[in-house]
Specification:
561 residues, eight-stranded mixed sheet, 18 helices, 13 strands, 46% helix
């Protein structure tokens, strides 16, 4: 190879490196930084996106390379194009790694972008400076090469840092057999728990009062109207419901979870009784994810790579343009792949419902029975799904919450109709419940004084609990027993020294029961903490709807580092 030919190939390699810089930052560094930083809330593995994203990076690199090659006929357009390419890559890195603002949970809630105006001006000033500096530096070929290498290094260091600080990996299903079994029922003995995240008990009452025909399917059910949760959000309520053991910031949360599930776990308790036990949609040990089940049955049209690309675009976009990508949960790229389904977890739950209606079966088994728990997020605020299970971004407030609750009950109605069709509903024990209230809708059935108790503490405590015993018949009944949703195991008749059996017996026998509630102000970043925010303890001596029954204990549970 002559020196001239060698120089040409070297130039082409450099041009290729320049061309790859932007796609690398936009489709690898930016989305991976968001992915690894929020991996506990993401329900797909990188293996599901690797090849499509690699193809996009290759295609983007090839396109930019061709443009740079076409402009190589003269130094001026070539250097200008190189400066723009490097400037864009530098701006993407700056925006995705430095200008990372906390917008709260990206769960469909509207963001008041006007509040971020100062940040927008800061970003504009920084981007103008970055482009000016890169254009000036790229006028000198050696400086351009050095800058390109530095940016690749910065991108690599950003990935290494994000990976090193990541809390772990997405929760994955423990076996494909479990995904099959989640849709299988025992011919004669079933226990079915359907948990609707954030359904508020008095909102359910409002639906039952205003739309009585929509709750007629609850034949044989008892509504435990005086049920409360122990916490305002899902994270501690989940293990509390499944294990019966409370958390008070006395030790690291992960240690509490591990020990609680080892001591008592609904799933293992039923397995010890000779049942086959399955959990769907929780992070508890042995659970499977809705996304995994949908993919296992080839019932999902959600391409995870679209979500991954949205992650990168959102992270890399200036704040002034982020609303175009986020679109209040109806993400820019993912939107084009979801057909007529609602976005995000709303759509996943609707797809699962359709899968359930088509694929649920009765399977002969040597097991004594089957225990199945479904944990759905469709009902979680903000309200985005109406009573027909159709997406509606305009829902808001109490009316929106009522309509979404009607949609969640429609999901339950259709699932129970399928169990009826299979011939197993009548003999089954069925629980419909929530982990907590809304935190966003003021109590609708409040009474008494409320001045010393935050209204969102009271609303978030209003957990739904409905129960049908085997072969129970009759119109929906109401029971005022002072229960806690962690009484689930006792309600199902399970026995353990780690359960509050005495409190449950007292409650169901009409005796007094003091119930504790731990209120805190939750922020999105608390998901990464190995503990909970400072908890303010209340006790409820009476009906959870009655503000006079609430009092502060003066105890504050703060996690010590």
């Amino acid at each position: 190879m002559t020196g001239r030919t060698k120089a040409k190939w070297q130039k082409r390699c450099e041009r290729l490196a320049f061309a790859a810089l932007g796609p690398f930052m936009l489709f690898v560094v930016a989305p991976l930084a968001l992915y690894w930083g929020n991996v506990g809330e993401i329900q797909f593995d990188l293996s599901a996106v690797a090849w499509p994203v690699a193809g996009i990076v290759v295609a983007g690199t090839a396109g930019i390379f061709l443009i740079l090659s076409a402009l190589a006929w003269h130094p001026v357009p070539e250097r200008l194009a190189t400066g723009l390419v490097v400037g864009a890559a530098a701006a993407i890195w700056l925006q995705s790694q430095i200008f990372v603002w906390d917008f709260g949970p990206l769960d469909g809630r509207g963001i008041n972008w006007a509040d971020w105006s100062p940040h927008m001006w800061l970003e504009r000033a920084a981007c103008v400076s970055v482009f000016g500096a890169t254009l000036w530096l790229c006028w000198r070929p050696k400086s351009a090469l050095l800058l390109m290498r530095c940016l690749f290094l910065l991108g690599g260091l950003s990935l290494a840092t994000a990976f090193a600080t990541s809390p772990g990996r997405p929760v994955r299903a423990d076996s494909r057999e479990n995904m099959d079994a989640i849709l299988q029922f025992h011919p004669a003995s079933n226990v079915v728990v359907i948990l609707l995240d954030s359904i508020q008990s008095d909102v359910f009452e409002a639906v039952a009062s205003e739309y009585p025909d929509e709750v007629e399917f609850l034949d044989g059910f008892t509504f435990y109207r005086n049920t409360m949760s122990a916490y305002p959000t899902t994270r501690p309520n989940e293990p509390h419901i499944l294990t019966g053991q409370a958390y008070r910031n006395e030790r690291p949360f992960h240690d509490y979870q591990h020990d609680a599930y080892q001591t008592f776990h609904l799933k293992t308790a039923y397995e010890a009784l000779g049942y086959e036990a399955r959990l769907l949609g929780t992070s508890a040990p042995g659970a499977v994810l809705v996304t995994d089940v949908l993919e296992h049955f080839s019932f999902s049209d959600v391409a995870h790579w679209r979500q991954f690309i949205d992650f990168g675009l959102f992270r890399a976009a200036p704040t002034a343009a982020k609303h175009k990508v986020y679109n209040d949960g109806d993400w820019l790229v993912a939107f084009w792949g979801r057909k007529n389904y609602p976005p995000d977890h709303y759509g996943r739950d609707v797809r699962f419902l359709e899968l359930f209606e088509k694929q649920a079966t009765v399977e002969p088994t040597r097991a004594k029975g089957r225990f199945t728990m479904f944990w759905f997020l469709l009902s979680h605020p903000p309200p985005r799904v109406d009573e027909q299970l159709l997406y509606n971004a305009k829902l808001s407030g109490t009316s929106g919450c009522i309509r979404q609750t009607r949609g969640a009950l429609r999901l339950v109605r259709r699932m129970l109709a399928k169990l009826e069709h299979l011939g197993v509903r009548d003999a089954a024990e069925i629980v419909v419940m929530s982990d907590h209230g809304t935190l966003t809708v003021q109590p609708l059935a409040a009474s008494g004084q409320t001045s010393d108790v935050p209204w969102n503490a009271r609303s978030s405590a209003l957990a739904l609990l409905l129960n049908k015993k085997p072969f129970a018949r009759g119109a929906l009944r109401t029971n005022e027993a002072p229960l806690i949703n962690s009484d689930l195991a006792c309600l199902l008749g399970l026995k353990s020294a780690h359960l509050d059996e005495e409190g449950f017996r007292a409650a169901t026998n009409g005796l007094r029961r003091l119930r504790s509630y731990y209120f805190y102000q939750w922020k999105h970043e608390n998901w990464r903490d190995n503990g909970m925010p400072p908890m303010e303890e209340y006790v409820v001596d009476g009906h959870v709807y009655d503000g006079d029954a609430w009092r502060q204990t003066g105890r504050h549970h703060v996690r010590t580092r």
